[in-house]
Please model this.
Amino acid sequence: EVLLRGLIDWVALERVHSRVARENADEPLAVIQRKVLDLIRSLVTEGLFEVGDLATSNGRFRAWDTTLDESIERIRDVYTTKFDDEPAWWFFCWLDATEAGLKVAEAIEARADSAQQS
Model:
């Protein structure tokens, strides 16, 4: 779902959390948070997304100029320590699909469309 959302727009941390939480409804929050951070790390490591924010004057995506480890620590700090303050973390960071990510998402979408037509 994160990849498919990347076809439409940037993907907020809240959306990643919601998806992982739905798939792991019986897990404690700490496990869900770890899985969210692992998913973000994996998507960026695989070159499918960039992580950043919308802190530019025009509200456009800006990739963070930090290492992946630094980015994950930034996210972890806000996402885990301020979890009860949803406005603090929901839109703290965003994922922007790369060209490679868009290609993978388009392939997933095409397979889903073919399966529905069969």
About this structure: The helical segments are 2-8, 13-23, 29-45, 68-81, 86-89, 99-117. The mean pLDDT is 94. The radius of gyration is 15 Å.
